[in-house]
């Protein structure tokens, strides 16, 4: 799967509504501070590889959130336009996170379609 598993906006909404997805905003801190998808954890793509290989306690201390597990389903990565989200998804998959997925519409689509 070179494109990696992607998530559409309707699918993302239903996953979030049922609490079955974890969202990761891999944009810069500045971009995330200006607005993000509610509930997303901001881990810039530049530090993602490090973050995903940390001890769970260290991850928790740094990001104030539980570290995702390798067998978690629906670990959804997104950025502004889609490219960094795909990069992040492929990186997470290469580290063994089988549930890593890319929200291809990214924040741009979310912000345009948000009611």
Automatic annotation (TrEMBL):
Rhodanese domain span: 17-115
Biological processes annotated in GO: sulfide oxidation, using sulfide:quinone oxidoreductase
SMART domains assigned: RHOD
GO MF, one example: thiosulfate-thiol sulfurtransferase activity
Entry-linked Pfam families: Rhodanese (PF00581)
Gene Ontology CC annotations of this record: cytoplasmic ribonucleoprotein granule; cytosol
Active site feature: 79 (cysteine persulfide intermediate)
Name under which the protein is recorded: Thiosulfate sulfurtransferase like domain containing 1
Organism per entry: Cavia porcellus (Guinea pig)
